[in-house]
């Protein structure tokens, strides 16, 4: 899959307060912002990287914004549109810059909303891609934030978590961000010990009874892409030795073959088990454990991140409405409360099934709790644990709805604010409060 880049904005501003607020605001507007405090640093960045737009103060310490612009033009660079910020006293300089080819200028103090519109009007904005969509909880946001970096640099990643929490989803997202190659998944627990070696490394024709053709193993199939080894803890010890060798040497030898075939891939291992304990019990090789444990992502169970429950419920309602061609159903407040209280031992998989079942079996436009739970289940639902009090519940609903609206409006703050019936400023403040950010860093190209 191709990278979908966010528009990159180069900000040149020495004033820390102005700089910080512009960075915050433009990141929320869906830009990837590089902030430079002086013109020399900005020029170096502009020579290295392509930007959709440059926002620069005219007055800067050392080289001015004006001189930076002229020097870059003299270098005959294909420059992105320059938008200058100027003090009231230096409008004449800004006008001169316009004559020399700058795109626009604003005079301090300026209205931030209008400023954003100006930047957009330069045609520099392209819609942000869909976010990773791993959830709203801090734990899942941290994972989502780490993935682009891991996609660029990590060759081996371990993902742990209970069954159904979304480990494979995270692995697929990592693969998507890395771009290119195939995603090949194998459940090590589901393949018999005798067949696992041939499944992983392939076999030559005639290697064993039934091997009528040469077969490329999953390592070869995933060459240039991602190999996802699910339930790595189930792998028999003799295979662990061979796996370790393949990871270390980055070559595989097919069963019945002799040739060492080089493979280059990203290896993502997953397990619901505690590998350290397995290692202590002698059921998992310690050297393999350390080899695959370099980068470890723990995906928490849904009951430890209740903020995600309604967020996912809404996503699944939307997904099934589109899939079944039926109207989008809503959740009654009592249904939301029941969904929040239920402990979801099967995690996201169970939640998804519950929503799908309700969408098929229940014809109501708005689902009550009985669409998901039997009366006796409802009666025995535990009270909300931990901090899920009314305030937290309402906060989670608000955050979930704002995020949902932003996604629907492709992260266009103005349109999302209009849809929510609040001002842009109010929306911006709420986004800051809930820690909702556009997927800005998610798809940036690697820095050179
Ligand atoms: N971020 C997500 N957005 C939408 N659906 C998701 C997401 N994460 C997981 N799911 C859904 O939840 C279910 C379980 O996800 P997944 O198979 O990735 O979990 P897992 O932890 O790998 O499970 P197992 O350990 O049983 O293999 C799947 O149906 C998947 O479609």
How would you characterize this protein structure?
The chain is of the alpha/beta class and about 450 residues long. It folds into 3 domains: about 10-125, Response regulator (Rossmann fold); about 155-295, Rossmann fold (3-Layer(aba) Sandwich), CATH 3.40.50; about 305-435, Helicase, Ruva Protein, domain 3 (Orthogonal Bundle). The protein is built from 19 helices and 16 strands. The strands form 5 sheets. Strands 2-1-3-4-5 form a 5-stranded parallel β-sheet, sandwiched between helices. Strand 3 (about 55), helix 3 (about 65-75) and strand 4 (about 80-85) form a beta-alpha-beta unit. Helix 13 (about 305-325) packs across helix 15 (about 345-360) and helix 13 crosses helix 17. The radius of gyration is 27 Å and the shape is flat. The model is unreliable at about 125-130 and about 440-448 (pLDDT under 50). The structure holds adenosine-5'-triphosphate. Adenosine-5'-triphosphate binds near residues 163, 169, 272 and 352.
